[in-house]
Design brief:
The structure is a homodimer. Chain A is built from nine helices and six strands. Chain A is α+β, with helices and mostly antiparallel strands. Chain A has a domain at 2-113: Sandwich (Jelly Rolls), CATH 2.60.120.10. In chain A, strands 1, 2, 3, 4, 5 and 6 form a six-stranded antiparallel sheet that branches. The A-B interface holds A 59, 61, 65, 67-69, 81-82, 85-86, 91-92, 114-115, 118, 121-122, 124-125, 128-129, 131-133, 135-140, 142-144, 175 and B 59, 61, 65, 67-69, 81-82, 85-86, 91-92, 114-115, 118, 121-122, 124-125, 128-129, 131-133, 135-140, 142-144, 175. Chains A, B: Residues 10-91 form the Cyclic nucleotide-binding domain.
Chain lengths: 189, 189
């Protein structure tokens, strides 16, 4: 739980007592490579803070084709948020790409923490802000970016993920063919 | 400013004194059709709450092609958030599609309000949450949705905008050709 405290204290300072309260809402879960955190149709009970490992979240279309919405590594938060905030069943899948530890937080706990501690409401707002900006950028990249530009942007923003994630998933995430991606890998600017 | 109070009080109740404080951070601006709220290269000083009118926010690529990131109507918040939160120059354009009134809020004011009033931090967190979920859905739709499905989803989510916005912009937003959109209009399910 030290990692949780460090993570939160990058944004707000907590007293020992406050942190005891905060941590009481989190449950640690270990996940093996290829395991699912959640699958379409499951109740989206938790939001996840990733302590270690890598995940990908994707939508599976009628033809069984994966569309990757997001990757997440250490210190990232991840959930099928439409389902989580709406307390509905998931429409997305989250699967583990490297053995992982995550902290699970229920919506009820998130809201209670936010209501009780202004600091935690601030923490969650700051985190959402960063996520919102990243998503706005991703929408622009999907609308307007050519493969070269998407590849460069991904490498600039997530150099760590670039090295750890198999190329076929990066190609999927970027919406480019594997051939195009291989060409970009071998001819970086 | 009554509309501002009503809008905020959909989420949190404010005392008269609190509302006086809140409203001191907002400045009213009237915008005519075809006017820009912000253009690429401008300092992204404000976030906008739209009281009336319709706007579209778009990215202009090197070839001068518009890529619509978002529409916004009454009671929506809008900004080039990457630039606004990062206090940088805008990379997006926001233009008025029907005569409008907006309330402008500086980042400094937003942060001060959030720090001073837990209720306002809560308000902004709830708003961001809704925006985050809408964006996650848009990403999925861009990745996986076929034109028919995107069109239906847009009509379901935003029936009001569907009637008010010229078809060519809806086609752009959905990433479909105008011919495809016309076909969908004339053959709704």
């Amino acid at each position: 739980m030290d990692r949780l405290r460090k993570h939160i204290e990058e944004i707000v300072d907590l007293s020992d007592e406050e942190f005891e309260y905060v941590k009481s809402f989190f449950v640690l879960k270990r996940v093996k490579k290829h395991q699912y955190l959640i699958q379409e149709g499951d109740q989206a009970t938790f939001e996840y803070l990733i302590l270690s490992g890598i995940f990908r979240m994707f939508y599976l279309d009628e033809e069984g084709k994966e569309h990757i919405v997001q990757f997440a590594g250490e210190n990232w938060w991840m959930a099928d948020y439409q389902a989580y905030f709406g307390e509905k069943k998931a429409t997305l899948h989250i699967t583990c790409m490297a053995d992982a530890e995550v902290l699970c937080l229920k919506l009820e706990g998130r809201e209670k923490l936010s209501a009780k501690l202004h600091k935690m409401e601030h923490f969650f707002r700051v985190k959402l802000t960063k996520g919102y900006v990243a998503q706005q950028r991703r929408i622009i990249s999907l609308l307007a970016g050519n493969p070269q530009r998407r590849y460069e942007e991904f490498g600039r923003l997530y150099p760590h993920l670039m090295q750890q994630i198999p190329k076929k998933y990066i190609a999927e995430y970027l919406g480019v063919s594997r051939e195009t991606l291989s060409r970009l890998y071998s001819n970086p600017k």
